[in-house]
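quick one, 441 residues, struct below
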Amino acid sequence: MCSLYSSNLLMESTESMKYFQLVWLCWAFCLNGFNNGIIGPSLPDLAENIHRHVNEINVILPTTSAGNFIGILISSACLKFKSMYLFITVSLLLGAIATFFIPLAGNLTNTLILFFLQGLSKGLVDAYCYALCLCLFPSNHNWQMLSLPVASAFSGLTIAFIVRAFQSHSIIYSNANITSITECTKDTCYTTPNRISYPYMIVSLILVPPILAFFYYFIEELLKKVKRVDYTVILDLPSVRSVNLKGKLAFIILIFLFHIPVYGSIITYSHLLTLYGISSPLFQSKSVMATITALFWGSVLLGRITNVFLSRYISMQVLLTLNFVGLVIFTTTLFLFKFEIAYIWVGSSGYGFFQSSFLPSVMTWAGSFLELDVIILYTSLMANGVGEIVIPYTAVLMFQHISHKVLMILIFSLSLIELGLFLAICYLKRIHNKKNNHIIF
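---
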């Protein structure tokens, strides 16, 4: 009886430790949100720091995305070493150091190198956090996996408000006569000091606790031989080795294509929204656009929390369908009223809410009927990395060489592409289910 009680107590203790680790995973995953939320509102001030026009440093966006993609590739090669805690520690440390020095870079080359390293750490943290979550909760990882992007959205919202507090602003002297067609001069306006380095340093400090936590887990596992993680979930994979992938290859291709625009469109919108708003014909202030960016990330956060809650009561496919209905409605609003600031407020909030859940909702939904969790995980992350390079780079080129209004056209077009690919996956799933039922009977 005592041994049974002790065994149950040990199981409860182990289960509670898993959820402690989940908290640290969410904290670590905040690096993702900080990276995505800080660039857009801080871009004009960063350009001022290195004495460049803001259009010249837009190359930051595809640079950090390239780092993210390479980070995902590196992580897939390192999983076999069974040192998840160490890898997360090193990845977070790299991200914290790179982020701290970004505003101190001094020139465009150094700035790009540091943003590349920040993106690299983001890709590593993305993959390792999802993989560790899969190891900790192999049989019931739906809501636990969804909690990671919730943390990312929360940090994206938080950092947007932090950046807003440290942006420089042009202040008009009270006795100056300024109209909408005159420009500020040193006699009529003054600019508040550029303090954009502070948000980056704050982010670095916020990342210190999870760095120490995962380093502690690594040391404890190394010295005490404590088995905290069952790595066989992602390493042995007998079901994946023996499964016939031919019948599921079309699924994997569609899932890959679907995930290319999913997160790339979110970060493109977040990064370029400030530049879009301060341009003609809107002429909004950096402060206003930073607030809209914060609203956007707040909507992403609310959307992810809502989806985590509803996923317990509604099937994932129905939930995804409802999200697509809302997505099309709000991206259409942004497309039709692209120069109306009131509609941009409304459209940004709706777009963030309904676009927010597709990563990792589609990943967990597809894994549930394909039974290829790790393959789906890395297929989705690889596609996400490709999208984070291609879509921001395409948007920047169109932004510079065509017009800034293409941002809303691009977002609207990508939402329709996502919808078409989702419907294609649903169609294949229906055929897959019919075949399985036929085999059973």
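The CA atoms of residues 40 and 271 lie 4 Å apart.
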